[in-house]
Amino acid sequence: MLIGIDVGGTTTDAVLIDGTRIVKISYVPTNHGDLLKCLLNAFDLLMKGVDPKKVERVVLSTTLITNMIAEGKAQPVGLVLIPGPGTNPKDYQLGQEPIVLDGAIDFRGHEIQKLNEDQARMAGRRLSNLGLKKVAVIGKFGQRNHSQEMKAGEIISQIMPDAQIELGHRVTGQLNFPRRAATTLLTAATKDSYREFTEQVARALKERMISAPVYILKADGGTLPLEKSVEMPVETIFSGPAASIMGVLALTPVEQTSVIVDIGGTTTDLALILSGEPLLSSKGARVENLLTHIRAFAVKSVAIGGDSVVNVAQDCVDVGPRRDGAAFCMGGPGPTPTDAMRVLGMTDIGDLALAKKAMGSVASKLRVTLEKAAQMVVDAVVAKIVSEVEQMFLEWEQEPAYRVWEIVENEKLQAQSVVGVGGGAPPLVPLIAKKLGAKSIVPEYAPVANAIGAAVARPTLTLNLRVDTEQGSYSVAEEGLTGKVTGRNMNLEQAEALARKLLAERAERLGIGEQAKEAEVTYSEIFNMVRGWSTVGRLLDVRLEVPAGILEGWRS
User: Fold this and answer.
1) Please, which residues have CB within 8 angstroms of residue 355's CB and are 6 or more apart in sequence?
2) CA 203 remoteness from chain centre
3) Mapping DSSP to helix (H, G, I), strand (E, B) and coil, where does residue 321 land?
4) Are residues 84 and 208 in the same domain?
5) Is residue 343 in a domain?
6) Which residue from 11, 176, 164, 170 is spatially nearest to 83, judged by alpha carbons?
7) Which helix (H) or strand (E) holds 29?
């Protein structure tokens, strides 16, 4: 049996799957002040009468990291950068003023300027005087040679022995210095709270006699063992939108091209699937104003949902972006789209009399009938979501994977089908699809598609290898791992073999060794370095990926 639990903005949903059947569903209101409690409440409701020994796998999708950052609850971090010449860290918009150290590594890993160790000591004393307990140290091209990051971290650690030092090359080794800095900063800010959460989850499940492996859903739709995810907590941001995408993959025919509209109580998430492949963001996840190296789907969250506040001004209706609580028909403080849909008979959620009372207040301000007021609210929601979908197409068209799809398929993508999931999907998605001139698909179990997607998502893994045969070295972007190679004439076949070996080792460390067998080469390139009419070495780049997908053999 498989269990999936999705902590959404409004409700926490859980599903129990036996083979290819959804056999049980539970849900509880989400309490953002205590995500652990609502997660366990949903789990306990689901497990009533179920033998815990039959559970084979538990997967969680949580808003913990998203909430910590959005609510300003992440821990303060001292930011230390070694940018080298030609860059101005003040232009990076990292949300705080960094401490800049002199020193430089070039793009091939050569030290071209010694680290100023006196500046590193001054940085340690300054951060210590500020009372900080977290420090992020990032050097430009530190992933190619992390000696300066290591040295600066060691010096600061001697002055701040109780501080936790996060080094950039251990978090991400991909190019783009500002994004490496942002990703390392967020990792340092969230790691302790995330570790505490995972330990509490593991302890609570053990008390409930669950011995099955527990996974967390990442922003790219893949799963990672809960205990291993502690080293990369920010990869779990946006796991909610990722869960909805995986749910659609699980609940709809294979190789389908669809716009996904996930309508919850607080937000509506938009995503795109091209011929069965979710569209990834080439720029990585944007967290607040920070661009990061977090691998994520190209999604957008719109602040409108079933519980959004209805505002009336100048004889017109506006919905969202605020949510003050549940719908009025569910005991909430004011009128919402859910109340409007209840009045129109589009849903049977909540008390009809209360829904009419809520829409009555809107109708009196608009000087229209009760039904007209409710229809105006629904029309406003549909119009806003349609507008956002059309805007997202402009953004999706900029993604390289989208352009490749257009060339391969020889067609311009339009909203041919709109797949709706989430609690608000059944009544609203047909209206949205009609406005877009598309086919509406609302699969069975759409309200709990996110939990289903989490339950059946398989692990993902990516490895980017760069080999410099002249220097006799290689580096792995995902871990800042470096090593030695021999011979200057390595070819792409040999580089791919090395990449597969390193990916298998990384998969074993992450506890997902079996997935390494499914890795595909998605990019490879070789560049000969010539001096004096002779080839002196080669630069080789290879990318291996285990893409997002659902567990083999599962199809609802």
Assistant:
1) 327, 328, 329, 338, 339, 340, 342, 343
2) 25
3) strand
4) yes
5) yes
6) 176
7) strand 21-29
The pLDDT, as a whole number, for residue 160 is 94
User: Pick from 416, 388, 386: which is nearest to 274 by CA?
Assistant: 416
Reported as a single tens digit per residue, the pLDDT across 314-340 is: 778 888 788 888 889 989 899 999 999
How is residue 109 annotated by DSSP? Answer: S
Chosen domain end from 417, 451, 486: 417
Nearest-10 Cα torsion for 286, 287, 289, 295: -30
Are 323 and 345 found together in one domain?
Answer: yes
Domain boundary among 184, 208, 237: 237
Q: Is residue 265 a part of any domain in this protein?
A: no
Check whether 304 has a pLDDT greater than 80: yes
Tell me what pLDDT residue 536 has: 83
- Total domains present in the chain: 4
Indicate whether 187 and 38 sit together in one domain. no
Q: Which of 121-125, 382-386, 398-402 has the lowest mean pLDDT?
A: 398-402
Residue with tokens 């902590």: 7
- Let me know if residue 444 belongs to a domain: no
* Beta-carbon count within 10 A of 533 CB: 5
| pTM for this model (two decimals) | 0.83
The answer to whether the Cα torsion of 40, 234, 246, 509 is positive or negative is negative
87: CB partners within 8 A, 6+ apart: 140, 177
CA 201 to CA 225: how far, in whole Å? 12
Overall size of the chain counted in residues: 556
- pLDDT (0 to 100) of residue 115: 95
Within 10 angstroms of residue 399's Cβ, the number of other Cβ atoms is 18
Residues 70, 22 share a domain: no
**pLDDT for the residue numbered 405:** 67
Q: How far apart are CA 428 and CA 338, in angstroms?
A: 11
Q: Are residues 124 and 225 in the same domain?
A: yes
Give the pLDDT of residue 256: 76
Does residue 257 belong to any structural domain of this protein?
Answer: no
**49 lies in which domain range?**
1-55
Q: How far apart are CA 89 and CA 100, in angstroms?
A: 8
Distance CA 215, CA 59 (A): 5
Q: Is the pLDDT of residue 556 over 70?
A: no
CA 59 → CA 70, 340, 367, distances in Å?
24, 35, 50
Rounded to an integer, the average pLDDT of 228-245 is 86
Q: Do 26 and 130 belong to one domain? A: no
Are 83 and 206 within one domain? Answer: yes
Q: Say if residue 476 is in the same domain as residue 402.
A: no
